[in-house]
User: Which sequence fits this backbone?
């Protein structure tokens, strides 16, 4: 049902013991809501209304509902490829993202109803493909995206990207993102309840809340790329508050920045949007320029600020990498102890990686960097989208011995297709147990098309989302919000499935 503009809308779901007829008891009433304990009969199934939400125009109502659903219902929704729709206003615009107080209930519900006020609201209840025994959330494969603007931005690459099937590493091997990702994957880990709570907050915030995907705004470029070079295009973002506002208006799951940026506005915003504090950086004022990630603050500072997560960069392949691995591993362990999630920027840096082409973005080398990153217990991995493959082969040419590799990486597990290359990165994140977010890259002439293309590749490969900064903040805020929403639209589109 899409675009319903009725005065009142009631949707009743009758849950039978087996949940086999999850959506059989759907009923729509355009004049009045059903009441508690009313008997609803639809599609030959009878159900009783057990829970009702009154006029639903605030995000807090959405949070309360999704938090209140028992696990069996959430799993049923995920199995059917459906989700509770995020609220929209009467004009069809997105309600400003936020998070409400979450209610907990041990009471299992056989049925519930939602009463929605007028608005253009889209809800999909299309059954997904059956995947017996699969570890992932099932998806039909493949479909035409519902959003025409995504097809338009993909242009000539639409068929190439949307109709591709991965044959090297099958999608059924993955722990794919989904509404139940935390319950399905993370609850069996050694992360304490506070860390799981903050990780859940990130997954449950913004426009992508409850989907298993995420969109993060990172603005640490004032240090990493120099403030003038980063903010000259839009001087408003010298002001830390504008950065946080962009993340909130853009519907992001979290905002990532420095101790200084986030600390300057923490009392106003740390409880409104998850803070991801980047605690090490490479600064460009040393002459000549050096490349080393050094600490700019402590994990305790991030905790005292109210951060939900901390992040760090390691330059894998560099002379300083062993020291950085030890430092970041210790910092991540303490962050987990305090209850914060951890995000690792897994970057390669070594001039030897530039041969016939630049292998800093090679699938095989970045994949191994990801594997090192999850080994030191990063909860989310940030990595550049792969641009080529065969880094190990090139570095072992001319009698040089470097690392170890198996030719089957290139012959069986990957192809030259960008989705297959990204799938290899996902595989190195424990087959998707640790979410892979790809970076959006530098701002250019075709930012909207480039961002959507990257999001499609990441999603179809089994990734968790995008972390895009310069494309969003090096333009007016309204355009930055639009770009972030375009990225999120890819992950909200049920027609774009795992390859």
Assistant:
């Amino acid at each position: 049902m899409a675009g319903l503009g009725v005065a009142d809308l009631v949707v009743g779901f009758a849950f039978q013991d087996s949940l086999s007829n999850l959506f059989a008891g759907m009923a729509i009433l355009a004049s009045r809501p059903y009441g508690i304990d009313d008997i609803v009969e639809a599609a030959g199934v009878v159900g009783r209304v057990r829970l009702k939400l009154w006029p639903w125009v605030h995000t807090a109502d959405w949070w309360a509902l999704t938090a209140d659903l028992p696990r069996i219902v959430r799993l049923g929704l995920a199995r059917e490829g459906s989700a509770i729709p995020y609220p929209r206003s009467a004009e069809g615009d997105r309600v400003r993202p936020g998070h409400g107080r979450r209610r907990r209930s041990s009471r299992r519900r056989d049925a519930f109803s939602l009463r929605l006020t007028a608005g253009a609201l889209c809800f999909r209840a299309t059954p997904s493909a059956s995947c017996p025994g699969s570890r992932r959330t099932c998806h039909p494969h493949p479909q035409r995206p519902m959003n025409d603007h995504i097809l338009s931005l993909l242009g000539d690459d639409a068929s190439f990207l949307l109709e591709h099937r991965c044959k090297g590493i099958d999608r059924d091997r993955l722990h794919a993102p989904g509404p139940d990702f935390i319950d399905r994957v993370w609850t069996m880990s050694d992360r304490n309840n506070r860390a799981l709570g903050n990780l859940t907050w990130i997954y449950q915030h913004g426009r992508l809340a409850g989907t298993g995907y995420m969109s993060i705004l990172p603005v640490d470029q004032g240090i990493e790329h120099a403030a003038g070079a980063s903010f000259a295009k839009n001087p408003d973002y010298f002001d830390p508050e504008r950065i946080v506002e962009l993340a909130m208006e853009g519907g992001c799951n979290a905002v990532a920045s420095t101790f200084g940026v986030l600390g300057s506005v923490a009392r106003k915003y740390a409880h409104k949007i998850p803070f991801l504090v980047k605690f090490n950086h490479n600064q460009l004022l040393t002459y000549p320029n050096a490349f080393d990630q050094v600490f700019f603050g402590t994990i305790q500072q991030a905790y005292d600020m109210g951060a939900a997560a901390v992040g760090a960069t390691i330059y894998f392949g560099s002379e300083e990498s062993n020291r950085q691995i030890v430092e970041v591993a210790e910092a991540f362990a303490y962050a987990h102890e305090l209850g914060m999630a951890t995000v690792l920027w897994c970057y390669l840096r070594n001039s030897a990686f530039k041969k016939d082409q630049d292998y800093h973005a090679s699938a095989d080398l970045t994949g191994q960097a990801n594997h090192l990153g999850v080994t030191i217990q990063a909860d989310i991995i940030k990595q550049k989208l792969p641009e080529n493959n065969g880094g190990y082969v090139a570095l072992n040419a001319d009698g040089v011995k470097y690392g170890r590799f198996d030719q089957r990486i290139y012959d069986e597990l990957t192809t030259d297709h960008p989705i297959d290359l990204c799938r290899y990165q996902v595989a190195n994140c424990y087959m998707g147990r640790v979410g892979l977010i790809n970076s959006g890259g530098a701002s250019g002439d075709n930012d909207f098309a480039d961002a959507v293309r990257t999001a499609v590749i990441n999603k179809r490969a089994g990734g968790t989302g995008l972390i895009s900064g310069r494309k969003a903040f090096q333009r007016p805020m309204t355009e930055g919000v639009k770009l972030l929403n375009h990225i999120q639209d890819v992950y909200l589109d049920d027609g774009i499935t795992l390859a």
Summary: Residues 1-33, 50-59, 86-143 have pLDDT under 50 and may be disordered. The longest helix spans residues 321-338. The radius of gyration is 23 Å. Residues 7 and 118 are 5 Å apart (CA to CA).
